[in-house]
Design a protein that fits this description.
The structure is a single chain. This protein is an all-alpha fold. It is 67% helix and 3% strand. The protein has helices at residues 3-26, 33-55, 62-83, 103-112, 130-152; strands spanning 124-125, 128-129. α1 (3-26) packs antiparallel against α2 (33-55), α2 (33-55) packs antiparallel against α3 and α3 (62-83) runs antiparallel to α5 (130-152). The two termini are 14 Å apart.
Amino acid sequence: MPSQRLVLLAAGGSAALLAAALIFQALGYAPCHLCLLQRWPHVAAVAIGLVIWGLRLPMVTALLGAAATATTAVLGLYHSLVERHLIEGPSTCTSGGIGQQSVDDLMAQIQGAPLVQCDAISWQMLGLTMANLNAIFSIGLCGLWITAWLRAR
């Protein structure tokens, strides 16, 4: 497969993942902070793919698409570890222990908590969460970007 097609396939894969995320959001699965962060590199990958394809840029620029999808894969892996409570997530979107807090401190924590927490799994299929699936597919897309670059060399 020619490198230009691989670029379109990789960019299309990111577009498909974005579309899936928006469909889940429309179905009532509100994204958390880490979910939203994982979307931006896909937006960048789609834009990079369209620019490479439209302007016929040198394939070395495909490495930018690989970097974007690698970034979202790392974010997806991080989010996966936070969801499984294997590591602590950002204090802005994860629940914490109540420890020795006063009632006033606890109420302030409850009122200041985000609506969707990063360490709560809202959907999963066969034990895989949306963050897991994003990481897996993004690693594959990163491979497509790298293959496009290698084929053009």
